[in-house]
Amino acid sequence: MNHKNNNRIAAVTVVLTALLFLLSGCVERKLTINTEPQGAVVILNDEEIGVSPVTVGFQWYGVYKVRAEKEGYEILNTNRKLDRPTHDVFPLDFFAEISPSRITDSYEWTFPLEPYTPPDRDQLLQDAEDFRRQAIEAP
To answer: What is the pLDDT at residue 51?
Structure first.
């Protein structure tokens, strides 16, 4: 009789666990990076992710390194912080992960690109001469 009860408890536990996994939702995290103008190659944390606008999934919140390159424009190098939403803070994050509905965290960052202007030749030569002079005069 005790063996029968143990089998029943085990079966109920398996069924409840399976139901929990089937009913549980999850948190989907998406980040869209756009540039003005569009069409720049976007590198996120040293990994090329595509051409803007581009959307990627992510797993963590914090500071991201963003680089965008487009011919005819200055290269953009910056950092941007992605703040954690309230439902992703302990202990609420546990309930968000097992909630019966899917939670979608979507973020969009837009970065303006500056047109490239080549440096003035005469100014470059003057700057080089100034640096040479400073190097000679330095102790």
So the answer is: 98
Q: Checking DSSP bridges between strand 76-82 and strand 47-51, what pairing results, if any? A: unpaired
pLDDT, position 22: 46
Residue 113 CB neighbours (<10 A): 20
The better pLDDT of the pair 139, 25 is held by: 139
Rounded Cα distance, 80 and 58, in Å: 14
Domain extents for the chain? 26-130
> What whole-number distance in Å separates Cα of residue 129 and Cα of residue 139?
18
Q: Say whether domain 26-130 belongs to CATH 3.40.50.2300.
A: no
